[in-house]
Specification:
- The structure holds two protein chains of two kinds.
- Chain A is mostly helical.
- Chain A has a domain of about 190 residues.
- Helix content of chain A is about 70%, strand content about 0%.
- Chain B has three domains: about 120 residues, no CATH class; about 130 residues; about 200 residues, no CATH class.
- Chain B is about 70% helix and about 5% strand.
- Chain B contains 20 helices and six strands.
- In chain B, the strands form two sheets. Chain B has a three-stranded mixed sheet. In chain B, strands 4-5-6 form a three-stranded antiparallel sheet.
- In chain B, strand 2 and strand 3 form a beta hairpin.
- In chain B, helix 9 packs antiparallel against helix 13 and helix 14 packs antiparallel against helix 19.
- The chains are: A mainly alpha, B mainly alpha.
- The interface between A and B is large, with 38 and 39 residues.
- Chain B: It comes from Caldilinea aerophila.
- Chain B: It is found in: Cell membrane; Membrane.
């Protein structure tokens, strides 16, 4: 009971308006900031926060909350260690920029606010339900916006935390919360393994040259000499123009390259 | 039905000890890849035949030295009970047979030293899922959590020590993770039904949530992406075993759920959602197969088209038939294995399954190429392939309901067929530089065996009826 009161005491700090708002903002910030350290720390805090909030509001068996804490810490540690030891596995170019992510998040929040599907989980309060659904939506957004195993792992861990919390409250005697905890650790292990198995490449350019050289064909073994291919810009129509020197030289080259015999013909056609 | 105390050693305990022992031995002797895989395949086949022919009406075996074995005694772990029953032994035997086929493929090509261990571990997990008969919550509520664990294990199987982007394994985790909260809340509503059986709100809410959970678990369009991606990035043997194990498990659980809780089908819109998504899955599989440039992905998309038809046969009102579902699934297994045999051989010789790299390979490896084409075309129901009879039967039934749906699926199938025609033109086209690859006698023999099996099933699908009738007892 002593351990229960510890969890409940910590949870009491979060079981109010500012606490819920803090957790909601923290989850949203994982999508917006898109930094692996922030994602790892934030996700761990959210996982611990949700379980303590549940301990304060529903008073589950202390072992269950303890198991939730252990699984949250172990799974975060596993993902964190994989990211620490294999940095190229987490530093990948994001599939979106901050503008798109904030727009997506805003659209999601707006749509939810306007439509208000009125989803209500049994025995959970409305605010708790909203928090769990918000975590689920942000996790789904995270899964949708990235193909990197690290961010997928964070998204999946947050989703399983929601499920674990529901199991602990709705099906308390079933032991499902512990079972989900085991599944969560296995999931984190799988994601950590995939992060470690990511090829150590820093750019698309290196990836292309590596994959081609592995084939062993004659034409593919030639070292690339041209400039690095640029990643697509946010606004392709406003791409930077070439400098003034090239602007003058290029037409001149074109004129020089034109066969001299065509000039009279063109002029004749123009005359007609 | 069973005594409170088992009368001797529960057979199920021996079974799991055998599985774990096989996984451990496979790991310890992993350097002898082919030998371990071959021994494992033989053991799995023998066990499958034995389980299939097990007579549970005589539940006690009296062995010498006073040892008795109780066939039906449950294995209880923390109030989770696993038990062999007449209804689940055919599914267990099917899992063993699939495992044997995967191990045999590893014995042939030795693509990963840990593959045998991983297959045995997956088999242990899926067997537990099948044999779970009693738990503090309904087994179908617990199932998605077990699926998360098993899919997390599948990440390693799909990776198989390969280089490149192998995120497909992680993305396979999304459907079971999404389905878990839905089924948990559905499970809570299920527990409330006995309190007021007359209240339709309980059954409707429980039915909607469980139906949605299974809808997600069945990975229709747009949740199918990881399957096609894994067909490209992973070894065909790994993609084959992970996919078939998962799909057999989900189909079995969906059958359990629909039989136990018929209100899912009667009081909710689940059949309409599932049919619509099944149709979209079949159409998308065909359309996407048309434009792909990777033979593995083409195989994956053809399998998605086939899976869409299975979903449609499972859910569509007036068409719903477990016999048809099982028939389509059995034909799917045969077609996928035939293709996988060819794809593995091609990948090992050429080094990649990119279509451009396969140019002219059909002239050097005709039997493996034919296995790829015939197996792949079987997945879209091309005439004279294994899948034709099933697809034809499903399309005929569908056309009676609505000819437009049947036409849409047929057009999608034509799209996938065009993809295979493109692959065939590349494989049997003339290559500028002579290829050095060659087909070994073992590859020829295996591909030939698979092709003969495909042709036998294509011409005499009734041969499967006895097996399907037995498996149907598990699906109700």
């Amino acid at each position: 009971m002593a351990s229960s009161s510890i969890f409940a005491t910590i949870g009491a700090w979060l079981a109010n308006g500012p606490g819920i708002l803090f957790l909601s903002t923290l989850v949203a910030s994982l999508v917006l900031v898109w930094d692996w350290r922030w994602a790892l720390g934030g996700a761990t805090l959210v996982m611990l926060g949700i379980s303590t909030l549940s301990a304060a509001l529903h008073d589950p068996v202390p072992v269950v909350t303890g198991a939730q804490w252990v699984t949250a810490l172990v799974s975060s540690l596993l993902l964190g260690l994989s990211a620490y030891f294999h940095r190229p596995g987490v530093i990948v170019p994001p599939h979106s920029n901050w503008l798109l992510r904030s727009l997506a998040l805003g659209f999601l929040a707006g749509a939810w606010w306007v439509l208000d599907p009125g989803v209500a989980l049994p025995t959970f309060t409305r605010v708790e339900t909203d928090l769990l659904i918000w975590i689920g939506l942000c996790s789904a957004l995270m899964l949708g916006l990235s193909a990197a195993p690290f961010y997928n792992g964070i998204g999946l861990l947050l989703l399983t935390t929601v499920a674990q919390n529901i199991a602990a409250v709705l099906l308390p005697g079933s032991g499902l919360a512990v079972l989900i905890g085991i599944a969560q650790i296995l999931l984190a292990l799988g994601c950590a393994y995939t992060v470690l198995a990511q090829p150590a490449r820093s750019s698309k350019w290196q990836m292309i040259s590596t994959s081609k050289s592995s084939t062993g064909n004659r034409e593919e073994s030639v070292e690339p000499t041209g400039p690095r291919p640029r990643l697509p810009r946010l606004f392709p129509g406003r791409a930077a123009q070439p400098g003034p020197v090239s602007r003058i030289k290029e037409p001149a080259k074109t004129l020089n390259a034109a066969p001299s015999s065509t000039s009279p013909k063109i002029s004749a056609e123009e005359g007609t | 039905m069973n005594p409170v105390e088992p009368f001797g050693i529960p057979l199920i305990s021996l079974l799991f000890v055998f599985f774990i022992g096989a996984a451990s031995i496979s790991f310890l002797l992993r350097t002898w890849v082919r030998l371990v895989a071959l021994a494992g395949a033989s053991a799995a086949v023998l066990l499958a035949v034995w389980i299939w022919s097990l007579d549970l009406s005589l539940p006690i075996w009296i062995l010498p030295f006073g040892i008795n074995v109780d066939l039906e005694a449950p294995l209880v772990l923390s109030s989770y009970s696993l038990q062999l029953r007449v209804s689940n032994t055919p599914v267990l035997a099917s899992y063993l047979l699939l495992a044997a086929l995967a191990l045999a493929l590893n014995a042939l090509h030795a693509h990963d030293i840990l593959f045998s261990t991983q297959v045995w571990m997956l088999l242990t997990g899926y067997s537990a899922l099948t044999l779970l008969t009693n738990a503090p919550a309904a087994p179908i509520v617990i199932a998605p959590v077990l699926f998360i664990m098993l899919t997390a294990l599948s990440v390693y199987v799909l990776h198989g020590g390969r280089q490149g982007n192998l995120n497909a394994g992680v993305r396979l985790l999304i459907p079971p993770v999404l389905a878990t909260p839905l089924l948990l809340v559905g499970g809570w509503w299920l527990e409330q039904i006995p309190l007021n059986p007359q209240d339709l709100v309980f059954t409707q809410t429980a039915g909607t949530l469980i139906g949605l959970g299974f809808l997600v678990l069945l990975t229709p369009f747009p949740l199918h992406g990881a399957w096609s991606a894994s067909s490209k990035s992973s070894s065909p043997a790994a993609a084959l075993i992970v996919g078939l194990f998962y799909q057999l498990g989900v189909l079995y659980l969906a059958a359990q759920a629909l039989n136990l809780y018929p209100f899912i089908f009667r009081q909710t819109d689940w059949p309409v959602w599932m049919s619509a998504l099944g149709l979209l899955t079949a159409i998308w599989g065909g359309v996407a197969a048309m434009g792909t440039t990777h033979a593995g992905r083409l195989w994956g998309y053809a399998a998605i088209h086939d899976w869409g038809l299975i979903l449609l046969a499972m859910a569509a009102p007036e068409l719903r038939s477990w016999t048809l579902v099982l028939f389509l699934f059995a034909l799917r297994v045969i077609s996928m294995i035939t293709s996988a045999i060819g794809l593995i051989a091609l990948e090992r010789q050429v080094g990649s399954l990119e279509m451009q790299r396969l140019r002219g390979v059909g002239l050097r490896m005709p039997w493996s190429s034919a296995a790829v084409l015939l197996g792949g075309l079987g997945l879209v129901g091309f005439p004279l392939t294994a899948g034709f009879a099933g697809h034809w039967a499903a399309l005929q039934s569908l056309a009676v309901l609505d000819w437009r749906l049947a036409t849409a699926i047929l057009i999608a199938a034509v799209g996938a067929i065009l993809g295979f025609v493109r692959l065939a033109r590349l494989m049997f086209g003339v290559q500028d530089a002579p290829l050095t690859v060659r087909e070994s006698a073992l590859n020829i023999g295996t591909a030939l065996g698979a092709l003969i099996l495909t042709l036998i099933v294509a011409t005499s699908p009734q041969l499967l009826s006895a097996i399907l009738t037995r498996i149907l007892t598990a699906f109700g």
